[in-house]
């Protein structure tokens, strides 16, 4: 796999990893308040593990939110002050019939 040296390539790579991790952890399960802590911890740990295994020169930050589909709104935002040529971030939204999952990954280049 090629080295990622710009924000767009970082974003594409981390989005792919994030979606796979969500699918592997949550899969086809229905929302359960009792499982949310397990799911969010599993998703962020799996994402970090998969990203680190790639051996890229980045430090990663991963966040995850799981929300039951009830018709309520969820708004998120983030802002970063960094080198846009080297660092990158992405946020993916996954959903099934009972819940939403939002994962953000920030990749900060190690000099």
From TrEMBL:
Its main location: nucleus. It is found in: Chromosome, Centromere, Kinetochore; Cytoplasm, Cytoskeleton; Nucleus. The keyword tRNA-binding does not apply. One of its GO terms (biological process) is cell division. Transmembrane segments: none annotated. Acts as one of several non-catalytic accessory components of the cytoplasmic dynein 1 complex that are thought to be involved in linking dynein to cargos and to adapter proteins that regulate dynein function. Cytoplasmic dynein 1 acts as a motor for the intracellular retrograde motility of vesicles and organelles along microtubules. Probably binds BUB3 as part of transport cargo. Required for the efficient progression through mitosis. Belongs to the dynein light chain Tctex-type family. Homodimer. The cytoplasmic dynein 1 complex consists of two catalytic heavy chains (HCs) and a number of non-catalytic subunits presented by intermediate chains (ICs), light intermediate chains (LICs) and light chains (LCs); the composition seems to vary in respect to the IC, LIC and LC composition. The heavy chain homodimer serves as a scaffold for the probable homodimeric assembly of the respective non-catalytic subunits. The ICs and LICs bind directly to the HC dimer and the LCs assemble on the IC dimer. DYNLT1 and DYNLT3 compete for association with dynein IC (DYNC1I1 or DYNC1I2). This is Dynein light chain Tctex-type 3. It comes from Oryzias latipes.
């Amino acid at each position: 796999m090629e080295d990622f040296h710009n924000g767009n390539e970082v974003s594409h790579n981390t989005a792919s990893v994030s979606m796979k991790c969500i699918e592997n952890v949550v899969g086809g399960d229905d929302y359960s308040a009792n499982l949310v802590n397990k799911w969010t911890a599993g998703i962020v740990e799996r994402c970090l593990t998969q990203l680190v295994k790639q051996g890229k020169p980045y430090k990663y930050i991963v966040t995850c939110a799981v929300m039951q589909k009830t018709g309520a709104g969820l708004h998120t935002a983030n802002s970063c002050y960094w080198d846009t040529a080297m660092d990158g971030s992405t946020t993916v939204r996954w959903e099934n019939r009972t819940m939403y999952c939002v994962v953000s990954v920030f990749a900060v280049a190690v000099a």
